[in-house]
Amino acid sequence: MTDFKVLVDALIKGTPWAVFIAAIGAIWQLVYAYTRDRAASEEAQRRYELEERKFQNQKAIEDQKFAYQKSLEMLRFEYEQRKWREQLATQLALKHVEARLIDYAEIWSEVKAVAKHNQKSGSLTPAIAQQAATIIESWRYSRGGLLAEETTRDAALAFQTALWSYDGTSEAFKRIRQARKLLRAALRADMGLGEDTFGQNILDATERRNKIKEDLANS
Fold first, then answer.
1. What letter would DSSP give residue 113?
2. What is the pTM of this model?
3. Rounded CA separation 96/147 (Å)
4. Which of 20, 22, 82, 209 could bridge across to 151 with cysteines, CB 3.0–4.6 Å?
5. Nearest 5 degrees, angle CA 164-CA 170-CA 175?
6. C-alpha torsion angle, residues 82, 84, 88, 90 (rounded to 10)
């Protein structure tokens, strides 16, 4: 403002051109200084905004890395948990099958009482059949029955009923043999065995159990 006032006074008083030019130079210096300072301020603001964007971008990258790492850790934990559960389920299934092999073998050994040659020879009497029925009933409420599938328990009950109602006739013996066949199929299905010595998948086992249920309902 002082330099501008000097210029005005010079114009009014008729100051020589040298002074006038000096005043003009002073004004240009002021303009230059103002422009320079403003440019510097704008540059500083741009740098600040640039650094702020860099910081925000870096923070976003770090957040993404953290989220990714956390996601990996969660996946790893879920995998280990699932693996542990599968191993536990496999161990339990093996123990289950081992227990079934023992208990199912015991119940199947009682089936020899109703073999065809016993019926033909007359050694299969109603009393013997009822005795076998009592053993089957005890098995149904033992560990074997507890480990058995529902279809297998139903087949065991049907076999028990056929044994108990045996009166020595061929018709009654046919009912025993039919119930025996269904019980055998159910026991083998529980142990993962098919019609032959080969294993079966879960779909085959389900299909066989459904067929056994139908046969039990129609018997």
1. G
2. 0.55
3. 7
4. 209
5. 50
6. 60
d(CA 123, CA 154): 27
> Could you tell me which of 145, 165, 144 has the C-alpha nearest to residue 153?
145
DSSP 62: H
Closest CA to 152 of 193, 118, 112, 113: 193
- Which portions of the chain are predicted below pLDDT 50? 197
Give the integer Cα–Cα distance in Å for 4 and 109: 124
pLDDT in tens, 165-194: 999 899 999 999 999 999 998 888 888 765
Helix (H) / strand (E) element for 124: namely none
Condensed to tens digits (0 to 9), the pLDDT of residues 74-95 reads 888 787 778 777 777 667 767 7
Helix (H, G, I), strand (E, B) or coil at 125: coil
